Amino acid sequence: MQKMLDRQAWLLLAIYASFGFANALSGTFIPVYLWKASGSYLTVALFALAQYSFSGLTFYLCGKWIKEGNKLNCLRVGCLLSGLFYCMVLWLKQSASGMPFVLGAINGIGLGCYWVAYNLIYFEITEPDTRDRFNGSQGLLGAGTGIIAPWLSGLLISWLANERGYTLIFTTSLVIFACCGVISFFIHKRPAQGKYDWLYPFKQWRQYTKESKEWRYVFAGITAQGIREGVFLFLINLIVYIATNNEAKVGTYTFVSSLTSLVSFWLCGRILKPQNRQLSMLVGVISLTAVIIPFFWRVDYTMLLIFGVGTALLFPLYIIPITSKVFDMIGATKQSVEHREELIIFREIALTLGRIIGLIPFFIYITWVNTEKGLVWLLLIVGASPIVGWFFMRPLFRIQHKRYGGESPPKHAIRAKPQSEA
Questions:
Q1: b/e map of 347-366 (b: 16 or more CB within 10 Å)?
Q2: According to the model, what pLDDT value does residue 181 have?
């Protein structure tokens, strides 16, 4: 039976929802904003490349900070830099399209600081028997912010002329990022433990122990996840805008898909158990690929809505098992718990590598193909990568079933008691 979430978990979820709302409010339309100013896929792709690259690099460089220093300060810096990014966009206005790599780098550093701290705090606050519920609640809140924020910003952009809508939503996001920093002061600080091992993530490749072999499977599975994310995170909403030339319809698209996602995450968070993760992930990866196939008939707003609803409905079947499994492995042994920061960074290196790999076929597409049919093939090839990820994660689910009868591994918690002040 799953345990209920405590107050600290709900505070962390409040930060997640606020940060997600700010990003959904404005981040949904950053690719559209750059596209409108430049009319070029290349501008958007360069922004994404810089964002992914600097986010992953920041994850690695901040490892020592979050292990030996105050991880909450790292999270606050992430909120601050995310706010700075939108300040720069407000200041540059249309000329922002002339420096996509610089803007992408600033945004990537901010996201890297935030997420490396958030993931570690998430691990320390949750337990194996609350992790699926937390992930389900997190997905529920993420979908909820995705319902309201892009729909609201799409309407504001359409109603307010002369870029006033963009100015309003970017300013609002800036204020919300500040609120995230305030909420973080209610999270209990945990004292630093141990010394950061800069080479530990790479030792998983050099060593030939049973644990290292399992982490190599994780690396491959997460890389496959990143390949899909590298393109789908920014391209789908941009395709909706190009197909409709209307920001309000982009907001409606995210409203419908996020509403579906909210229901799906709510159900999956309560139904999914450790023993059925392998089957759930298999159904998820096959279905996520299948929903792309109708685009071969046509790419219009109706088909995009069908794709959005199908993806939102099925995505939790894929993402909840892989996320829960990886963090269960971090907590499975005393050694892995001691090196939880390094392993979280190991996961992020894989995700970043996958996102950059995913951009390679996109750069090929915009350079040599640039047709509607070629775009669909790009979506299918990149969108099928989670199937590869399932093949690499499958042995880990089988190992779990063999060792623990399908249940989550027992926790090896050497977690520090939280202090009263952040």
A1: bbbbbbbbbbbbbebbeebb
A2: 86
**CA 227, CA 389: separation in Å to the nearest integer?**
10
Tell me if 399 is assigned to some domain. Answer: yes
Any domain includes 36: yes
Task: Say if 18 falls within a structural domain.
Answer: yes
Report pLDDT digits (tens) over 50-68. 999 999 899 888 888 888 8
- The sign of the dihedral angle between the CA atoms of 186, 188, 193, 199 is negative
In whole angstroms, give the CA distance from residue 238 to residue 243. 9
Domain that holds residue 83: 7-186+206-404
The verdict on residue 416 lying in a domain is: no
How many domains does the chain fold into?
1
Residue with structure tokens 């790419």? Answer: 299
Q: What is the pLDDT of residue 162?
A: 67
Task: Give the predicted TM-score (pTM) of the model.
Answer: 0.84
**Residue 344's CATH number:** 1.20.1250.20
Q: Which two tokens stand for residue 119?
A: 């993931």
Closest CA to 225 of 348, 143, 329, 360: 348
Structural tokens at position 170: 């970017």
Q: Which residue has the higher pLDDT, 272 or 375?
A: 375
